[in-house]
């Protein structure tokens, strides 16, 4: 079932809503502190966020803006601020729905369901022609690798080394396995060629801490691609 995060400075309201929504099958986290609510969203990665507007220190509109910096989960405002300007402001800051207090918790549950169905339907289909590891993107169709959107300019063999390793993250890849993938067959004399090609790839990664730490040497055996 979906995970919800409720942020409201009214503890009593939080606990009542948490109890009902938990009974409806949701996993529900609550926070009465806006800052801790934002931190909690980063930690639990909720499927939907219910957010009050009038809170001390940081109002709901500001919280919504902060949440939108790292999550696309649907956000619903539950608030007593009922002017047209308030509703427009709430939606403009990134919320997906705006419900005015007093409200029916049953209606809130239905609106959550509607948003979850919509977002599930609109979720992008995974592109199997692209591998992504943090800021590194490998495009199989373009036969290129990019770091933060910039082409790394890999030669064909360098790209093939990277693609094979990245396609087997966390696995110890022997010299023989990598050599066979690159050359179609392998003899012990090919180890030098394998090492040279890996070395050339590593040269392209020099000076970049994130990339340098993706290829790990397995002593006397081969290599391992460390997926982050």
Radius of gyration: 25 Å
CATH superfamily of the largest domain: Response regulator
How many strand units?
A: 12
Beta percentage is 15-25%
Q: How would a crystallographer describe the biggest sheet?
A: 5 strands, parallel
CATH fold field value of the largest domain: Rossmann fold
Helix fraction, binned, reads 40-55%
Return the structural class: alpha/beta
Return the domain count.
Answer: 2
Architecture of the largest domain, CATH level 2?
3-Layer(aba) Sandwich
Low-pLDDT runs: none
Physical arrangement of strands within the biggest beta sheet: 2-1-3-4-5
The CATH class of the largest domain is identified as Alpha Beta
Secondary-structure element pattern, one letter each = EHEHEHEHEHEEEEHEHHHEE
Which oligomeric state applies? Answer: single chain
Shape: elongated
Distance between the termini: 27 Å
Mean pLDDT: 90
Helix tally equals 9
Characterization of this structure:
- Helix 2 runs parallel beside helix 3, helix 6 (156-166) packs across helix 8 and helix 7 crosses helix 8 (191-205).
- With 228 residues, the chain is an alpha/beta fold.
- The protein has two domains: 3-122, Rossmann fold, CATH 3.40.50.2300; 130-225, Arc Repressor Mutant, subunit A, CATH 1.10.10.
- The protein contains nine helices and twelve strands.
- It has helices spanning 11-23, 34-44, 60-67, 84-92, 105-122, 156-166, 175-183, 191-205, 209-212; strands at 3-7, 27-31, 48-51, 75-79, 97-100, 130-133, 136-139, 144-147, 150-151, 172-174, 215-218, 222-225.
- Strand 1 (3-7), helix 1 (11-23) and strand 2 (27-31) form a beta-alpha-beta unit.
- 25% of the residues are buried.
- The model has no long low-confidence stretch (mean pLDDT 90).
């Amino acid at each position: 079932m979906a995970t919800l995060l409720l942020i409201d400075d009214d503890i009593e309201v939080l606990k009542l809503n948490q109890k009902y929504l938990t009974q409806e099958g949701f996993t529900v986290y609550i926070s009465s502190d806006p800052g801790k609510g934002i931190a909690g969203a980063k930690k639990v990665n909720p499927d939907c966020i219910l957010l009050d507007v009038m809170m001390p220190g940081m109002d709901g509109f500001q919280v919504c803006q902060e949440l939108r910096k790292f999550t696309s989960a649907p956000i619903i405002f539950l608030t007593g601020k009922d002017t047209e300007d308030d509703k427009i402001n709430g939606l403009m800051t990134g919320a997906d729905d705006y419900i005015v207090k007093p409200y029916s918790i049953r209606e809130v549950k239905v609106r959550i369901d509607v948003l979850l169905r919509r977002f599930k339907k609109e979720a992008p289909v995974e592109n199997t022609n692209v591998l992504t590891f943090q800021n590194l993107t490998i495009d199989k169709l373009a036969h290129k690798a990019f770091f933060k959107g910039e082409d790394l300019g890999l030669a064909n063999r360098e790209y093939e080394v990277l693609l094979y390793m990245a396609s087997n993250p966390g696995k110890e890849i022997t010299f023989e396995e990598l050599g066979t993938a690159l050359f179609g067959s392998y003899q012990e004399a090919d180890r030098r060629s394998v090492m040279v090609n890996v070395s050339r790839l590593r040269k392209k990664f020099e000076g970049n801490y994130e990339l340098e730490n993706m290829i790990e040497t397995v002593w006397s055996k081969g290599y391992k691609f460390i997926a982050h």
